[in-house]
Amino acid sequence: MPASTAHAAQLCLDALSTADPSCHSPLYTVMTMANTLELSRQAWVIRGQTRSRRPGSWPTWFARNTSEKPMLYLHSAASSAQLCALSEATALRGILCNDIENHPSPWPKGAQPSLPLWLTTHPRCTPYDPSCGEEARAIVLGGLRNLYVEGQPGFYYLALHDHERAMPLDERDREAALQGMYPIQRRPIADVRLLGAGQALEEVIQAAQLLEQDWGVTSQVWSCPSYTRLAREAAVAERWNRLHPTATKRSCHLRECLEGSEAPVIAVTGYPQPIVDQLAGYVDARFVALGAAPSRYWVVVSALRALVEEARLDWRQVEIAMNRYALECD
């Protein structure tokens, strides 16, 4: 990484260090950060609409770019083809922020199913789905530091929604969010562990309240801004352990967060279920993946069923819950 690029990135981090810590949505937070970066003149901030396969709104000054600066690209891409074209045009570098889930669409989170699958399988992409403004801020700052100060390859992707949630993070939480997950409600002992990402985290939090209020079931709640990063790190650690059977085993952030308990894990995403299925092989407990943003009631029923399968509850509890919440199975 050229010294001039690292220096520009550090100036960007300095400019963002005095940002307003108030509660905002991920979209508002990133837009505010973009304005600050524009004023600093140390980053390329590009605002483009990518509904076609060709990236648009490229400023003339960017076309004359002769040295790399940190790049923040704000766009609306609904398909993997659009996102692929955009990533190639940016030379697989930068922080790409997609606000497509704020637009009317028949697809979960506004994106065609191919888009999240493309994100998880692209080796140069680190995708995130922040649930609040503080998470989004931590991820953008981490991206500037990791990509441009430390010179790591690839690009970051953020899915941005415009719903505010007050969730202050301390320094430890911010770093853990960048790694993929951190605790919101972490009891020493709990009956189930609930994981959520993006807007789906709100349903997970509400489900935890219903579980305790209606069924006497206690929960740990975790925010997971990046299921993909968790799964990739776990896969790397597992492969290393397999190839070095006599060496000390390597751990990963996912296992470190979930160690010390055998309680079932219910993981929820607003994207299709395969995004969460990535974790299944690395969770040492009963694991349930829920996709396409299930309601809090389905999260509750899934948690109760997991406890039934662990012989902790009777099947009648699940039937009662299905009737109480007026849920129907096709």
Structure description:
It is built from 13 helices and 10 strands. It has 330 residues and is of the alpha/beta class. The strands form 2 sheets. It has a 5-stranded parallel beta sheet with strand order 1-2-3-5-4, sandwiched between helices. Strands 6-8-7-9-10 form a 5-stranded mixed beta sheet. The longest helix has 17 residues, at 133-149. The N and C termini lie far apart (55 Å). The protein has helices spanning 3-16, 26-40, 60-63, 80-89, 114-121, 133-149, 171-179, 200-215, 227-243, 253-258, 274-277, 296-309, 315-324, and strands spanning 44-47, 71-75, 94-98, 125-128, 155-159, 182-185, 192-196, 219-223, 265-268, 287-290. β4, α6 and β5 form a beta-alpha-beta unit. It folds into 2 domains: 3-173, Thiamin diphosphate (ThDP)-binding fold, Pyr/PP domains (Rossmann fold), CATH 3.40.50.970; 180-324, Rossmann fold, CATH 3.40.50.920.
- Separation of termini? 55 Å
* Tally of separate helices: 13
Report the uncertain regions: 50-57
Q: Give the CATH topology of the largest domain.
A: Rossmann fold
For the biggest β-sheet, the strand order reads 1-2-3-5-4
Largest sheet: 5 strands, parallel
Task: Summarize the model shown.
This protein has helices spanning 3-16, 26-40, 60-63, 80-89, 114-121, 133-149, 171-179, 200-215, 227-243, 253-258, 274-277, 296-309, 315-324; strands at 44-47, 71-75, 94-98, 125-128, 155-159, 182-185, 192-196, 219-223, 265-268, 287-290. It is of the alpha/beta class.
